[in-house]
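Good morning,

Attaching, inline, the backbone tokens for the sequence recovery test we're adding to the shared suite. The designed sequence is right after.
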């Protein structure tokens, strides 16, 4: 595909550029379907939730059941071929050149950058009291919300065996 010369045919959208942007924004940063939208899988097929954007907001959430082979066919329409990358990895906001690209865009648009407001240095917060003894609590580590806490490593026998 890379050796061929491509000619892109694009015609004006019926509903205008805002509708095109709304359509594309639903697909550029997401996977085809998330696990929480899958409701059931049985002999009848796959049941899942989807949004019908043609309806008003109160009735957008719909449920559909498709035969397994049709569900897989539709899912595979959203899987990129080997060697292709998602749209979010390219363009002005690509992570490798985001700062330089945005600086160049601001320069071309003659946008005056406003300096970040100076934030006064926060005073160190006093730790909450210990629920057991009432003394000051010593925080050893704060775990990120998405991280599972791990237990301490298991001690091994000096002779080389496990406990």
């Amino acid at each position: 595909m890379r050796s061929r010369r491509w000619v892109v045919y694009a015609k004006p959208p019926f509903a205008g550029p805002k509708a095109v942007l709304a359509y594309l924004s639903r697909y550029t940063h997401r996977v085809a379907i998330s696990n929480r939208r899958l409701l059931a899988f049985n002999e009848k097929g796959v049941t899942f939730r989807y949004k019908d954007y043609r309806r008003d907001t109160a009735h957008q959430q719909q449920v559909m059941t498709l035969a397994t082979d049709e569900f897989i066919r539709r899912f595979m329409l959203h899987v990129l071929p080997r060697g292709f990358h998602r749209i979010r990895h390219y363009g002005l906001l690509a992570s490798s050149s985001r700062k330089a690209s945005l600086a160049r865009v601001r320069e071309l648009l003659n946008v005056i950058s406003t300096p970040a407001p100076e934030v006064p240095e926060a005073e160190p917060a006093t730790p909450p009291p210990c629920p057991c003894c009432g003394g000051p609590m010593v925080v050893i580590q704060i775990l990120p919300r998405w991280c599972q806490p791990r237990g301490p490593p298991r001690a091994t026998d000096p002779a080389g065996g496990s406990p």
